[in-house]
Amino acid sequence: MEILSSRLILRPVDYQRTLEFYRDTLGLAIAREYPGGTVFFAGQSLLEVAGHGRGEGPAGFAGAIWLQVRDCADAAAELAMRGVVIDRGPTREPWGLIEMWVRDPDDVPIVLVQIPADHPIRRDSRKP
After folding, report:
1. What is residue 4's predicted lDDT score, i.e. its pLDDT?
2. The CATH number of the domain where 56 resides is what?
């Protein structure tokens, strides 16, 4: 399976407090914002603070590892052949991404994400 990009997703109890910590206290630069979340540059990685989904992760880790793949259906088939249990098969989310969920041996959620060709992430938002 080819991984195209990745990020760590935090799903805090208090979104605004956590957002202010990473943005204002640590001074991380914003990579992009979306309704209910902010993605920061964090060195060679990205750190996303999400204001949704807190109840989806295990009690010990409120977040997920985000791995972008070319095709979620292909990734699901490959992982199933390797014996990986798929918690949730490829689904187009309201925000336009196709996501599927698996877990690592320590129960950390891993979100495999496909970005459709027409998604805003793929568009150049700079003004000419």
Report:
1. 81
2. 3.10.180.10
